[in-house]
C-alpha cells in the first residue's frame, strides 16, 4: 500500500517537473485563466488527499476497534468456560465431600457397634466358662457333701459316741452350705451367660441395621452426586453455548468492521486515483497547448520574418490586455509579467520563470498532501 502511494506521488512530481520543463523550452507565458485552473486543480487534489487521509485513519480505527471487540469476546468465552468448569468441579467436590462425610460417620458407627459386639461376645464366652466352672465346683461340692454325710454316718455308727457324731454333723452342715453357695453361683453364672447371648444377638442386629443404613445413605449420596453432576454438566453446556454465540457475534462484528475498512480503503484509493487522473489530464492539456503555440509561433516567424513577429507580439499583447479586464486584481501582476515577456523575446525565459514561480507553493502542497497520505 505504501509503495503504491509512493509511486503515485513520484509520478505526480515527475509530471509537474516535465510540465515546467516544457513551459521553459517553449518560452511562452502562462495566462491568468490557466493559473486559476491550476490553483483549483491542486487545491482539489490537496482536499481529496486530506479526505483520503481521514478515511484511512477512520478505517484504521475501525480495524483496531474490531480487533479489540474480537479479543474481548474470546476472553469472555474463555472466562465463561473456565467458570463453568470451576463450578462443575466445586459442586461435584462439595457433593462428594458431603456423601463421604455421611458414609464415614455411618462407617464409624458400624465400627463402634462391631467393637461393642466383639466385647460382648468375649464377655459372654468368659461368663459361660465361669458358669461351667461354677457348675463343676457345685457338682464337686455336692459329691463331697454326700461323701461327708456317708462318712459321718459311718463314723457315728462305728464310734457310737455323741461327740464324734456332733463333729461329723457340723462338718456335714458346713459342706452343705458350701454346696448351696456353689449352686447359687452356678445359677448366677447361667443367668449372666444368657444375658451375654442376648446382648450378642442385639449387637448383631444393631450392626446389621447400621450397615444397611450406611449402604442406604451412601446410595442416596451417590444419587444426589449424580444429579448434581448432571445439573453442573447442563449448566456448563449452556454456558459454552452462550459463549459460542457471543464468539460468533464478535466474529460477525469483526467481519463487518473488516468490510468497512476495505470499503474505506477502496474509497480512499478511488479519491486518490480520481485526483491523479485530473492532474494528469490537466498537465497533458497544458503540454499540448504549449507545444501547439510554440509550433505556430515558429512557423509564423519563419514565414513572415520580423514584421510578422512584431504584429504577432502586438496581437498577443492585445489579447492579454482584453483578458486582464476580466481577471481579478489578484492576477494582474502575473498578466503584466506575461505581457512583458511577449514584448521582449530576449527575456522570454525569465518571464516564464516569473510566471511559473507562484506554482511552486502549490506543488509543495500537493507533494506534502501525497506524503501525508503515504504516511497514513
Write a concise synopsis of the structure shown:
By secondary structure, this protein is mainly α. It has six helices and no strands. Helix 1 packs antiparallel against helix 6.
Give the terminus-to-terminus CA distance: 10 Å
**How would you classify the helix and strand content by structural class?**
mainly alpha
Shape, per Cα inertia axes = rod-shaped
Radius of gyration: 63 Å
- What is the mean pLDDT? 63
N-to-C SSE series?
Answer: HHHHHH
The biggest beta sheet is recorded as: none
Strand content: under 5%
Number of helices: 6
Summed up, the domain count is 2
Could you give the count of β-strands?
0
Biased composition (Basic and acidic residues): 275-334
Organism: Trypanosoma cruzi
Biased composition (Polar residues): 335-353
Signal peptide: 1-25
Give structural notes.
The chain is an all-alpha fold. It has two domains: 191 residues, no CATH class; 128 residues. It is built from six helices and no strands. Helix 4 runs antiparallel to helix 5. The termini are close together. The relative contact order is 0.17. About 10% of the residues have low confidence. It comes from Trypanosoma cruzi. This is Mucin-associated surface protein (MASP). Keywords: Coiled coil, Signal.
Descriptive terms for the model:
single chain, 376 residues, mainly alpha, 6 helices, rod-shaped, signal, coiled coil, Mucin-associated surface protein (MASP)
Amino acid at each position: 500500500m505504501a509503495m503504491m502511494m509512493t509511486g503515485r506521488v513520484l509520478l505526480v512530481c515527475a509530471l509537474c517537473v516535465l510540465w515546467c520543463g516544457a513551459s521553459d523550452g517553449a518560452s511562452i507565458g502562462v495566462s491568468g485563466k490557466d493559473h486559476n485552473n491550476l490553483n483549483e486543480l491542486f487545491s482539489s487534489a490537496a482536499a481529496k488527499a486530506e479526505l483520503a487521509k481521514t478515511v484511512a485513519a477512520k478505517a484504521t480505527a475501525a480495524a483496531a476497534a474490531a480487533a479489540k471487540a474480537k479479543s474481548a469476546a474470546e476472553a469472555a468465552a474463555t472466562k465463561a468456560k473456565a467458570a463453568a468448569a470451576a463450578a462443575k468441579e466445586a459442586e461435584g467436590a462439595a457433593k462428594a465431600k458431603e456423601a463421604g462425610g455421611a458414609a464415614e460417620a455411618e462407617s464409624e458407627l458400624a465400627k463402634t457397634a462391631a467393637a461393642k459386639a466383639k466385647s460382648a461376645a468375649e464377655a459372654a464366652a468368659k461368663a459361660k466358662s465361669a458358669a461351667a466352672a461354677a457348675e463343676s465346683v457345685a457338682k464337686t461340692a455336692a459329691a463331697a457333701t454326700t461323701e461327708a454325710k456317708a462318712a459321718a454316718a459311718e463314723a457315728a455308727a462305728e464310734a457310737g459316741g455323741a461327740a464324734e457324731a456332733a463333729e461329723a454333723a457340723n462338718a456335714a452342715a458346713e459342706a452343705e452350705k458350701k454346696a448351696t453357695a456353689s449352686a447359687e453361683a452356678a445359677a448366677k453364672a447361667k443367668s449372666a451367660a444368657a444375658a451375654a447371648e442376648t446382648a450378642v444377638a442385639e449387637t448383631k442386629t444393631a450392626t446389621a441395621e447400621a450397615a444397611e443404613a450406611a449402604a442406604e445413605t451412601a446410595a442416596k449420596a451417590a444419587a444426589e452426586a449424580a444429579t448434581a453432576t448432571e445439573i453442573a454438566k447442563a449448566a456448563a453446556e449452556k454456558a459454552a453455548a452462550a459463549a459460542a454465540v457471543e464468539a460468533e457475534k464478535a466474529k460477525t462484528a469483526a467481519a463487518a468492521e473488516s468490510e468497512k475498512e476495505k470499503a474505506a480503503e477502496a474509497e480512499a484509493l478511488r479519491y486518490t486515483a480520481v485526483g491523479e487522473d485530473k492532474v494528469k489530464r490537466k498537465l497533458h492539456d497544458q503540454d499540448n497547448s504549449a507545444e501547439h503555440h510554440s509550433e505556430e509561433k515558429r512557423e509564423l516567424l519563419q514565414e513572415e520574418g520580423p514584421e510578422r513577429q512584431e504584429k504577432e507580439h502586438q496581437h498577443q499583447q492585445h489579447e492579454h490586455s482584453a483578458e486582464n479586464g476580466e481577471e481579478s486584481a489578484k492576477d494582474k501582476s502575473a498578466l503584466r509579467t506575461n505581457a512583458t515577456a511577449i514584448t521582449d523575446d530576449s527575456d522570454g525565459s525569465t518571464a516564464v520563470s516569473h510566471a511559473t514561480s507562484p506554482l511552486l507553493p502549490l506543488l509543495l502542497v500537493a507533494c506534502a498532501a501525497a506524503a501525508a497520505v503515504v504516511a497514513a
